[in-house]
Design brief:
Length: 266
Amino acid sequence: KDTKTIGEAVNYEVIGIDPGAGIMKATSSALEEYELSDWELVEGSGAAMTASLKKAYDKEEPIIITGWTPHWKFSKFDLKYLEDPKGVYGEAENIHSIARKGLAEDLPGVHKVIDQFAWTPDEMGEVMSNIQDGVSPEEASATWVEENSDKVAEWTKDAKEGNGEEVKLAYVAWDSEIASTNVLAKVLLDLGYDVKLSQVEAGPMWAGVANGSIDAHVAGWLPLTHADPYEKFEGQFDDLGANLEGAKTGLVVPSYMDIDSIEDLK
Ligand code: PBE
C-alpha cells in the first residue's frame, strides 16, 4: 500500500506559471492561508505547466497545477478544481478589455470594436483547441472569424473602417489570451487596420496601456486576479468591461487524485 501523503507524492510542489500572473499571487496567498508553509510554488510558464501536466497525466501520477478556465486542458484531460473553502481565489471572474486613454478619440473604429468585443468560454475554447492541436494562432483565428461572421458583425457594427492605421495590442502568452488577442487582431485587420501584436509579461501589459505605448489589451482578469495592476494604474486606462464572463482560477488536479479540497494538502 502506498502510504505517501499527497505532499510527499508531489514533492510539496504546486506547478505554477509566469511569476507576473495574478494566479501566482493568489496561490502564494493560498499557501499562507491554508498553512501550507512547507509547500513551494514553482515558477515557469503556461506552456511548461501544461507540459508537466501532460507528462504526469500520461503516467497517472499526481500533480497539482495553477489552473484556469477557459482553458483547453479541461477538454484534453479529466481534471478538477480543488475546493477553496476560504475563497482565496475569489468568485467567478470576468475578462475585461482595457484601452489606453485617448483611444476613442484617436482611433474611434478600433475603440468601438474592442468595446463591442464579447464572446463565450465555448467560443474561446474552439480557437484554443485548434491552436493546441497545432494550428497557428493566425490560422485558427482566421478560421473562427470566417465561420462566425454573425458574431463578428456584432463587434464591428457601426465601427469606422481603417485605412492602414497602426494598432498596438499586447498580450501575455496564456493560452486563453493568445486566442482572444489573435481573434481581435484578425477582426481589426479585416477592418483595415495595421495590427501589431506584442507578447509581454503581465506587468508591462498593464503598464503599456497606462502609459499609452499600447493601445489596448483584452486580458484583464477581474475583479480579483489582476486587482493589483488594476489598482496601481487606476485612472490611467479605460475599462471597457467584460469580453468574457464566467472565468475561474484555482488549484487543479487530475480527477484520479484522491483529494477534493486545498485543505486536503495539509
Ligand atoms: N491566468 C490566465 C492569468 C490571467 C489569464 C489566469 C493565468 C493570471 O494572471 O493569472
